[in-house]
Amino acid sequence: MATELKKKLPAKARRRKGFEISQVGANCEREYTEYDDDDENVVGGDVNLLKRGDLSDSVRDMMIGFGDHMEPMEESIIVMQDFVVEYIQCMTKKAVDIATVKGKLDTECFIFPIRKDHETYERVKDLLQANGELKEVLNSGFDPADEKVY
């Protein structure tokens, strides 16, 4: 039913609106306090303040893709996963700090901190452009199954 509704609405009506930064701050505080004393997060005496997803499979694939051994060591994967999580947390904090000034959290808040890193900025710009083109194609009603193969 959700896909039927999505197809009926024009593209403009489906567009997400930016949300206020006050909502983000309230949610973050709730998450930190919610997991502080949670017994499920205690593993071998260590307390994780926030629950994290397991990125080890993705990190392993990226390491292999960038030329590492076909079976990277578990320790290497764990270290790389820690780097990735730390980078994401750092970039998210910077984006939220920018959003407090701006008043809402949107993609520009994530782009602004990387504007001086030309390589990363160009990659993000290309990915956002490809995402926009994909959305246009999906919203235009194009169905690849209808195309004839010659």
TrEMBL record:
- GO CC terms of this entry: nucleus
Name any Gene Ontology BP term. Answer: transcription by RNA polymerase II
Q: Where in the cell is it found?
A: Nucleus
Signal peptide annotation: none
Q: Which InterPro entries match?
A: Histone-fold, TFIID_TAF13
Q: Which GO terms describe its molecular function?
A: protein heterodimerization activity
Q: Name one Pfam family in it.
A: TFIID-18kDa
In terms of one coarse class, where is the protein primarily found?
nucleus
Which Gene3D superfamilies does the UniProt record give? Histone, subunit A
UniProt keyword list: Nucleus, Transcription, Transcription regulation
Q: Does the keyword Transcription regulation apply?
A: yes
Out of the domains of life, which is the source? Eukaryota
PANTHER family from the UniProt entry: TRANSCRIPTION INITIATION FACTOR TFIID SUBUNIT 13, TRANSCRIPTION INITIATION FACTOR TFIID/SUPT3-RELATED
Q: Write out the similarity annotation.
A: Belongs to the TAF13 family.
Q: What is this protein called?
A: Transcription initiation factor TFIID subunit 13
- Its source organism is Albugo candida
